[in-house]
Write a structure and sequence with these properties.
This protein is an alpha+beta fold. The chain is built from four helices and three strands, in the order ααβββαα. It has one domain. About 40% of the residues lie in helices and about 15% in strands. It has a three-stranded antiparallel β-sheet with strand order 1-2-3, covered by helices on one side. Helix 1 packs across helix 2 and helix 3 packs antiparallel against helix 4.
């Protein structure tokens, strides 16, 4: 099994958002619109009338809630890391298992 570098079809904006999601410590200024754009580039996104968003990435589907302000919170960052990692999306040079650091950041 070969390591999966960040996909070539992502533009610079998407790559930057991916880097922000995987940055340690958790960034508290990742904009929802940037996350939504990244998710649309790597999976399918269904925006529902109740403000929730259903994201299908690989074989995994998850319902995300739109944040009340423009930035996502730490819990959403951790959830996105898990979802993107399991689908093979990680920034270039990132390797290893993020699971050990995730629990401490759920806060």
């Amino acid at each position: 099994m070969s390591s999966t570098p960040e996909p070539v079809h992502l533009n610079d904006h998407h790559r930057n958002t991916l880097l922000q999601i995987f940055r340690h410590p958790v960034s508290h200024n990742i904009e929802w619109r940037a996350v939504l754009s990244l998710l649309k580039a790597v999976g399918s996104v269904e925006e529902r009338h109740d403000g929730k968003v259903v994201v299908t990435l690989g074989s995994e589907a998850e319902t995300l809630e739109r944040p009340q302000n423009k930035d996502i919170d730490a819990r959403q960052v951790v959830d996105l890391r898990r979802m993107l990692s399991s689908a093979g999306y990680r920034p270039e040079g990132e390797q290893g298992d993020e699971a050990s650091g995730q629990e401490n950041e759920r806060g």
